[in-house]
Write a sequence for this structure.
């Protein structure tokens, strides 16, 4: 066989960096600030809701294809409560196996061979693989350091649109940079999408982790309701990343298109957890604000620790990640730096370069997650001082 075993569309997408770095964390007994999962489970009441659903036989067999009505209704009520958006739970919500499946199904549904997909670089790693699986071509628009944040150059975005552009894949709050697109930026993107008749798929899994101001869904802007698919997830908001409950919302046509792909991926998933997430979404505002305040304090703790250790820190406005520049420490290759960091000081981080097509633009940046217990972050900060 002279043909490679792996489908050539997936060439270059070997094991993810998270597998390598998490294995390194275990081997060296390091604190793992690489992968973004909380080290504390979400609310006890939500966990109990899942246990109740399991015991009462709700969701133990295949749930309905679009998701259980309780969760679809809860998603619609959530969008109304936080953003004033009207969503029909019967036709405009689809429950997915986490945001990961929502991204895959949306791209498989909407992208054909030859279509271009614009994505903000650095991007969450599944975007590139899913665009490739859909046969599309990714067109990265690079976020660049701008003071103590990463900024989007709107002219660069406009210049990236061609006659072949099918959609813009957005992510705000943005992983790994922590950038939150401003209302002015979102308005400009919306105007561009309307003018060039583009679809927008927007990954808003960190919608409740915005530290200054609030989250603005692009779907709420003029002309966007009819062309936007919004992706959400319970994993980040309720700290149950293993449950894999996500959703997409959009027009009935768009949601039906995504469902056409989704039904042949998992068909359905997470039965009992869907009921529990429905209850979670209805938690009072204080749950959401205390989650955000707690993570804001952790952001500040880790940001000052990293600054004290000599990193240049880009202050995240959202998400639970901090991107740093390692050049002030005398390094420029983030991958090499991350591979040696566990041996040097017992902390694991991930090199942002793996989220870039333009390796040179991402090389000196390294990401740390702060969704960890305060004493774990304290210990990580004291270990990083060894640098
Ligand atoms: C930007 C972004 N989108 C999607 C996901 C995946 O979400 P889920 O666990 O719900 O599949 C993540 C997880 O880290 C993420 O950071």
């Amino acid at each position: 066989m002279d043909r490679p075993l792996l489908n050539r569309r997936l060439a270059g997408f070997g094991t993810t960096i998270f597998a390598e770095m998490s294995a390194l964390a275990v081997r060296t007994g390091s604190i793992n600030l690489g992968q973004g999962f909380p080290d504390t489970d979400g609310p006890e009441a939500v966990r109990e809701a899942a246990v109740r659903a399991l015991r009462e036989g709700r969701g133990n067999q295949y749930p309905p294809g679009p998701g259980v009505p309780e969760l679809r209704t809860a998603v619609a009520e959530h969008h109304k409560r936080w953003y004033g958006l009207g969503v029909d739970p019967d036709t405009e919500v689809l429950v997915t196996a986490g945001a990961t499946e929502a991204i895959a199904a949306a791209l498989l549904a909407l992208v054909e061979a030859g279509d271009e997909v614009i994505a903000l670089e650095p991007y969450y790693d599944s975007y590139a693989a899913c665009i490739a699986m859909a046969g599309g071509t990714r067109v990265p628009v690079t976020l660049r350091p701008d003071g103590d944040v990463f900024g989007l150059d709107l002219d660069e975005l406009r210049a990236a649109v061609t006659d072949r552009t099918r959609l813009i894949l957005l992510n705000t709050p943005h992983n790994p940079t922590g950038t939150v697109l401003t209302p002015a930026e979102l308005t400009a993107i919306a105007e561009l999408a309307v003018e060039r008749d583009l679809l927008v798929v927007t990954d808003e899994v960190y919608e409740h982790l915005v530290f200054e101001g609030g989250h603005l869904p692009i779907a709420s802007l003029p002309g966007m309701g009819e062309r936007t698919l919004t992706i959400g997830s319970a994993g980040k908001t309720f700290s149950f990343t293993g449950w894999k409950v996500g959703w997409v919302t959009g027009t009935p046509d768009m949601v039906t298109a995504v469902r056409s792909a989704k039904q042949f991926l998992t068909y359905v998933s997470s039965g009992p957890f869907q009921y529990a997430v429905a209850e979670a979404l209805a938690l009072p505002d204080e749950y959401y604000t205390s989650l955000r305040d707690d993570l804001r304090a952790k952001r500040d703790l880790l940001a000052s620790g990293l600054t004290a250790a000599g990193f240049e820190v880009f202050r995240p406005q959202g998400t639970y990640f901090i991107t740093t520049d390692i050049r002030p420490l005398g390094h420029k290759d983030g991958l090499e730096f991350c591979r040696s960091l566990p041996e040097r000081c017992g902390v694991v981080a991930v090199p942002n370069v793996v989220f870039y097509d333009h390796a040179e633009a991402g090389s000196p940046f390294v990401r740390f997650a702060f969704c960890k217990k305060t004493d774990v972050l304290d210990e990580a900060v004291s270990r990083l001082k060894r640098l």
